[in-house]
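Changelog-adjacent note: as of this version, every example in the card shows the full chain rather than a window. The one below runs 202 residues end to end.
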Amino acid sequence: FSILQGPVVNLDLERDTVCVGQSLQIINNSTGDELSYNWSSTPAGLLFTPSASATTPAINVPTGAPIGDYQINVQIANPVCNAVNWSAPLRVSRPPNVTLNDIQDFCNSAMFTPVANFGIDSTFIDSVRWTFPQGSMPATSSAFNPGQVTLGTVGQNYQVCVTAYNLCDSSTACTTFSILQGPIVNLDLARDTVCVGQSLEV
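Full-length structure tokens:
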């Protein structure tokens, strides 16, 4: 007969965050005799290659996988010893996809609050950078919602841009607006009295 050593688990993930369409490796320094593995993810949807029974599979994240917080699970057993369960968290992310609401044109001066949609939840974004036209208050911002922006100089095609960054990639969106000069009235009549049947110039 044989006395088998049960599983002594020593597992780790190559990293704790992965982007859709990417893969990462499981690091396995476990010991034991005649070990078998059964890998899974919670929620389901991540793929283990070459198989879910491999000793050190790669975890592949399909491009269509929902982003979120997953758990990598494995049950390690041998023919006679009690099975051992292990799990580790894994965050699945994707690049931001920024869109920026239009900003209307203004007369003489501008006061506006820019609004962006980042395409993913803000917890999956590492940083944001807004840039506003020269002379604006503020000139830049690192806030998701930068608040009110003012600009008092007449001009055409002022540009507002926002870029969102995370470990997967970055995304930028821009929009333009103009500040038009309002009418400056300088009118007079040639005279202030006119007779019926006559005309006068403005």
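Structural remarks: The radius of gyration is 32 Å.
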